[in-house]
């Protein structure tokens, strides 16, 4: 059933209005989105969750991407047809935000968030079928990309996430056409910087990642919110 008011979200009986609906187009208000994200975050992660003022620049970029504000994305060199690679130090809130932000656009196709290490564990058990399973039209967010071990199945080593990223890139290229504008998207979070990613996955995968993702990064001095 189509949601007639996707800009209005109800949580625990409380109504959150994220913007105004005009001519079948939502004009979002960033401050209203932040209020909702803070409330939804507390419901999902507990009463100690909060939106930090120092993270609002990163949050703004993520929000304009998810709400598909094309004008704002163009100004910040964000391609709304690519996925998001959210990078930053351990504990800065990457995973929480990627779990949270999909809720501001309930009318859009969502993505499944999967730890990269779990995918490698699956490969170790069932082999190359694991890689094939992610070459489908589902949207994914690979969490903690780069911390997983090298996969090993029947004595053969495999850079599992590297292979999956190559498959996801091929899928993205096949499905993203100018007239349709929206291909199969892939997101990821990582603690690694660009050089570390290249060392981990090689130049070929790193090159594909540039075309597959928009890089949005927390400041390297961002504090650990889990302490």
Give an overview of the whole structure.
It is built from 9 helices and 11 strands. By secondary structure, it is α/β, with parallel strands linked by helices. The strands form 4 sheets. A 5-stranded parallel β-sheet has the order 6-7-10-5-11, sandwiched between helices. The protein has a two-stranded antiparallel sheet with strand order 1-2. Helix 7 (160-175) crosses helix 9 and helix 8 packs across helix 9 (203-212). The longest helix has 16 residues, at 30-45.
- Total count of strands: 11
Count of separate DSSP helical elements: 9
Task: State the share of residues found in helices, binned by percent.
Answer: 40-55%
Order of strands side by side in the largest beta sheet? Answer: 6-7-10-5-11
The SS-based structural class is: alpha/beta
Net shape: globular
What is the average of the pLDDT values?
91
Report strand %: 15-25%
Keywords:
227 residues, alpha/beta, five-stranded parallel β-sheet, 9 helices, 40% helix, globular
List strands and helices in order, with pairings:
Layout: E1 8-11, E2 14-17, E3 19-22, E4 25-28, H1 30-45, H2 56-66, H3 70-75, E5 83-87, H4 94-101, E6 112-115, H5 116-126, H6 129-133, E7 140-145, E8 151-153, E9 156-158, H7 160-175, E10 186-190, H8 194-201, H9 203-212, E11 213-217
Parallel strand pairs: 5-10, 5-11, 6-7, 7-10
Antiparallel strand pairs: 1-2, 3-4, 8-9
Helix pairs in contact: 7-9, 8-9
């Amino acid at each position: 059933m189509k949601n007639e008011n996707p800009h209005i979200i109800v949580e625990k009986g409380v109504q959150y209005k994220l913007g105004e609906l005009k001519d079948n187009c939502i004009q979002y208000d960033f401050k209203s989105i932040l209020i909702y994200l803070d409330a939804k975050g507390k419901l999902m992660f507990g009463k100690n969750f909060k939106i930090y003022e120092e993270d609002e620049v990163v949050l703004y970029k993520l929000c304009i991407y998810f709400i598909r504000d094309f004008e704002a994305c163009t100004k910040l060199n964000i391609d709304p047809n690519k996925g998001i690679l959210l990078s930053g130090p351990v504990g800065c809130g990457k995973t929480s935000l990627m779990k949270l932000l999909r809720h501001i656009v309930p009318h859009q196709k969502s993505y499944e968030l999967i730890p990269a290490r779990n995918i490698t564990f699956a490969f170790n058990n069932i082999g190359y079928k694991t890689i094939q399973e992610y070459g489908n039209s589902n949207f994914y967010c690979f969490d903690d990309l780069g911390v997983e071990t090298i996969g090993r199945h029947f004595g053969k080593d495999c850079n599992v996430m590297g292979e999956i990223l190559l498959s996801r890139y091929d899928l993205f290229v096949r499905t993203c056409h100018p007239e349709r504008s929206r291909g199969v998207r892939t997101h990821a979070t990582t603690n690694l910087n660009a050089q570390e990613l290249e060392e981990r996955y090689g130049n070929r995968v790193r090159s594909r990642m540039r075309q597959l993702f928009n890089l949005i990064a927390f400041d390297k001095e961002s504090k650990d919110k889990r302490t």
